[in-house]
Amino acid sequence: AADTVRVGLMAPLTGAWASEGQDMKQIVELLAEELNNQGGLLGKQIEIIAEDDGGDPKTASLAAQRLANSDVVAVIGTYGSSITEASQAIYDEAKILQVANGSTAIRLSEKGLKYFLRTCPRDDEQGKVAAKTLMDMGFKKIAILHDNTSYAKGLADEAKGLLEKEPVEIVFYDALTPGERDYNTILTKIKAAGPDVVLFTGYYPEAGLLMRQKMEMGWNVPFLGGDATNNPDLVKIAGKQAAEGYYFLSPPVPQDLDSKAAKDFMSAFKQKYNAEPGSVWAVLAGDGFNVLAAAIKGSGSTDTEKMVAYLKTQLKDMPGLTGNISFDEKGDRVGDLYRVYRVDADGKFVLQP
Amino acid sequence: MLLKIENLHVKYGNVEALHGIDISVEQGEIVTILGANGAGKSTTLMAISGLVKVSEGSILFDGEPLNKLPAHDIVARGVAQAPEGRRVFGTLTVRENLNLGAYTSNDQQKISQNLDWVFELFPRLKERRNQMAGTLSGGEQQMLAVGRALMGNPRILLLDEPSLGLAPLLVKTIFDTVRQINQAGVTVVLVEQNARAALKLADRGYVMEVGHIVLKDSAANLLANPDVQSAYLGGRG
Amino acid sequence: MEFFFQQLTNGLAVGGIYALIALGYTMVYGVLKLINFAHGDLFMIGAYLGLTLLTALGLADHLSPFGVIALLAVMVLALVAILGVVLERVAYRPLRQAHRLSAVVSALGASIFFQNIVMLIYGAKFHVYPHDLMPRTVVHIFGMPVPLIRILILLASVVMMVGLYTFIQRTKVGTAIRAAAIDQGAARLMGINVDRVIALVFVIGPALGGVAGLMVGIYYGQINFTMGWIYGLKAFTAAILGGIGNIPGAMVGGLLLGLIEAFAAAYLSIAWKDAFAFCVLILILIVRPTGLLGERVAEKV
Amino acid sequence: MKNKRWIVYAACAVVILISPAALNRYWTDVLNVIGLYVMLALSLNIILGHCGMFHMGHAAFYAVGAYTTAILNTAYGIPVLWLMPLSGLLAGLFALVIARPIIHLRGDYLLIVTIGFVEIVRIALINNIFGITGGANGIFGIDRPTIFGMKISTPGQFFYLIWFFVAVTIYLFRKLEHSRFGRALNYIREDDVAAAGSGIDTGHYKLIAFVIGAVWAGFCGTLFAAKMTIIAPESFNFWESVLLFMIVLLGGRGSIAGVILGTFLVIGLPEIFRQFATARMLVFGVVMVAMMIFRPEGILPPPPRTYRLDGDTGPEEAA
Amino acid sequence: MTLLHLENLTKRFGGLIAVNDVSFDVPEGAIVGLIGPNGAGKTTVFNLITGNYRADSGKIVFDGRPINNLPTHKIVSLGIARTFQTIRLFQKLTALENVLSGCHCRMKSGSIAAMFQPPWQRAEEQKALDKALSELRFVKLAEQAMNLAENLSYGNQRLLEVARALATEPRLIILDEPAGGMNDQETARLIDTIRQIQARGVTVLLIEHDMSLVMKACEQIVVLENGGKIAEGTPSEIKANRRVIEAYLGTDEE
Ligand SMILES: Nc1ncnc2c1ncn2[C@@H]1O[C@H](COP(=O)(O)OP(=O)(O)OP(=O)(O)O)[C@@H](O)[C@H]1O
Ligand SMILES: Nc1ncnc2c1ncn2[C@@H]1O[C@H](COP(=O)(O)OP(=O)(O)OP(=O)(O)O)[C@@H](O)[C@H]1O
Ligand SMILES: [Mg+2]
Ligand SMILES: [Mg+2]
What does pTM read for this prediction? Predict the structure, then answer.
């Protein structure tokens, strides 16, 4: 452990979420490489130790044990709340700082764990924004569709709870099965309920199919999606025509930020991988790395206590890939992060004013 | 010489079941193989048909080695077998079973001739031609197994206990049939527990014991041989 | 009423695809008594190969949409069939004498292998077929709009079923296939080249699966490396529902499963539809232990 | 011959026992997971290996046990280990109810029905059935077990807890195998018509086999819940059942030693293959196929049972 | 005294009447033969008695108790054991274990007892083992005890089936073509074995096409044809019965 600073990355490199996990790895490795080219941290090179959590809790707990044993100063990850949860206790017991990137369940930061932080916002945050957006847009009859994953259900419930207090009617509330291809049955059923808008809280592959099949049905209802649909592949799957007019909520993606950090990252990423970064979650893992780097630099040490203290108290509005970053006492990211996006006719995600 | 087996060894796993046997069959003969349970009679027939691997020795059919050929090629050369345990295709109909007996032949006319002949031999099968073979009674299945082997115009017919489970009347029919087929020019190798009947029918016979041929002679001599009598003919019948 | 009819066509469209995959499943099962868990993955590979060929050869620029699809279908069919034969050769043939379940584990291993090799080659991302490949023609039946492609998929599965059924039941080779399924040794004694018969089955089954994958790709657009697992399980369920090993059964089972899912989602709960479908399956099997069209041969003792 | 076998087993046991001392926490935890799967696989082995029923839904029973523990512990604070018998009982009861109508199904039909059960259970859990399963979030905050006032929390502590139960399982199941009951299951597996013809109530035994397997899976559920402190539906999906199914077949149907070895391979190999990163499951798939081809009846098929025949009934008297 | 009583038994398979209104009695202690042409319905009668098939109509009374609708294992524990026309042994198990399966229905211990093995359970196991060995010795297969059933020769497999059936301590044993595949000498030995079974007080009902066995061993013979009973009587009566000769035996011209 003497000559390098080892940073763990726990990500779903195989299994159903492999695409997210592999993006996370690419981004974090890119950032580490850049930092190393600038001389690393505390005069040492950074080494990324990536472990596969397979997207399932059991494998995740093993991956966590493994990282806890490999002298890492901190761990980035992971995607999926229950996966993260399976690893939390292990890092806590081992006194390792964990910065989660795609785990939005509220409870993760409500347990009073000292060394847990996350760069992603919480479900209640997004739920609030979703309800507010729907109200602002003036919809009266709302259908809510989730996919029974812990994230999507959480968001759907959160929004539903808030909307029920408002003078709107929730005409439909149910879950689809992710991974299927044909959602015509569901669309037909939602259509029969007659909503003005559909709030879909699931992920982009299903959202894309829903948009496409909705168009083929000749049905013209607006859709509002959650941040899990912020992925360029959404448009690829739906087709530009079908995707046009789709709204979704998301923390800002690097493309939309004016900060230097974001711009540099975008060009570096394009140059290295010849593609645009995928989902915002992977980018949030990148921010996790940036935050860690800042903590080490700022506290001048790789001591967990010092890093955590620095992040929770001293780090303020650090410019990240997804906007400015600060943390509260619980380790949650503060600030209203969410923006509304709309897909335009070219399939571009346009930030709404 | 139609069939010539020399120094045949067969192994099941590590256990050798045949320890080097020699059998020869002339064109047009009926040859019977006698022997107690587990002597290796069925194994011999299976080796000829290519269903068990020969570990040593050779099997020549019409001067051509069989033991390197795959089983289906052996059949195509005119070696048919009605195997031990009948092995009819249970979920196929009687008709389909019989048609499979003529799988290697393409002569439709000949096939339907044979079918008529088999149905004549075993009227029961005709009656049941659309029944699933697996639901036939034991004896009916035996008829089917023999009938199926007759369908393909074999040059040599290997029969493994064809009379097993048949009613006395039908046992006679079977032996008569074998004689008929033989007279029509088909060579027959017959394995039978009903040794007396088999010897009466056959030209020559072999006696096997635990994987060896211990005796070979003309059928008449074997029938008269006191050792054979006491061991296989149950004293007197 | 319109809602009902819409859901009916929705169910039939899904069911048609299940049926198509189930046909290949049942075909392989019928001969080897092998639950080929890799079948779903061959389906998935069919979808990927279709996309690769389409983009690599730039077909869409030169041919009419139906020409493109027909040509793709032929190529995918051939390639997946080759893969199927190789799979049989490598993973199943050595296990022919072993216990039935040994081959199932081998199939599961092959399934894991296929999924991960596709993930490594193509990446874990979703891949998408061009959207304009298939003209989005809509025809009207009793005044209800139905996309043409749904009718084509249904038609394709009916044609394949009838073709297969005739082939298996009426032809000499078909009888040989069934015979080999029952007793390979006895089949050899009839002069049947069992290896070839089984290889033939592994041409037909996987080819059907591959084409089904292509159709799913064209129809829904979105494919990924885990799709075979979900569709495979559904198709297996469909095949069992109809009576595994039975070709019309696979068809009936597929369509029925599609309909059950559609109506469960439409009139009960979407989130519970799969559970409901399994409940119906279980109930049907309690009443008819060998599926809807499965043979009920009382075992002769 | 027989003695040699025992020496090997004893050596293995000793190696396993002292291993936490030599291993880091990660590898100890891998052994813990293996231990859990050994128990699960041994319980499936009763159903699949001994009785020959194609059961690919074992995770359903495991889930019942885990959720029983999690719900009762988080809601009423009942100590985790006290819940073990209850979890087993409920899982067994559940098996009894669902297996009764389907137990007569043959081979693949039973297979799909059991897959159906595991899917139904998972869907029910995800949809927060009765409002007590926590939906997709699952249940968190399960207490660590305590033994004689000592809290079990590190991998090393869990190691001894889990492997203690593994040892008990092996001991009991070995006795079970070598008994009237174990033989009856084997007869049914070989030929159930003949088994009935020998006076064995096949339906009853199949059911009991199911229940015993389920009870044990329920016990494992408790240990799993205690170890993870959080459980979620995806821990009990169809794939888990498939893994267990593969373990039993790969190890050798009906062989305790084989099943244990199979678990080490199926659960351990992907961990060893971590060096292949994204290709690790690919390698795993290839290894599965290869192992099956080289050992079609499993790595260690069960040796024939031996019986102590009394001297005076020796064969020489027989002729 | 009548041990087994069949009354107007009928069984159909689709349109086929496999057993048609058959009645006969098996007296306690006797050896009764059931013969008839192939497909006459003999095996079906056996399957009806042992509960493998359900009769469409008619009555089966064993020892004064109707057993029509009982499951097979119940019937076995009441005291009827059988062998199968096509051998159905547990091929991958040893000969000893095959016979032990027969002891099963006379034992009590279940899964819990198995796990904790109280003394009575061990005693029971030992008793069963002794019983199985003695049955093996009875059919002269003790040397084969540890061989797998599949490795026994065909004739020995048949004997093993008999031993397994005997281990259930039956009062009636029914044998379906026990001499199938045996040569004359082996058949002669089988006749001895059957007589010894009778001497143990077990009633025997058997199907056989080997007339030497039937005529020597049986005291009473029932003849079926096309599902119906066409004759019943002592061997000499049956041998002389014109109808039986026509339908089954044929004239012994040689
Ligand atoms: N599949 C097999 N695996 C292992 N051993 C076998 C197998 N088949 C036969 N044997 C053994 O090979 C030897 C010869 O058996 P085979 O069946 O050829 O005898 P057989 O003369 O036909 O006897 P039977 O009169 O009983 O039919 C026997 O010892 C038998 O146990
Ligand atoms: N499960 C079944 N389904 C349909 N037909 C059957 C079934 N079982 C038996 N049969 C028919 O019933 C008739 C009587 O069969 P059974 O087996 O009782 O004859 P068997 O007298 O024992 O003849 P064998 O002496 O040849 O064994 C046969 O014609 C047979 O085809
Ligand atoms: Mg033989
Ligand atoms: Mg019979």
Answer: 0.89
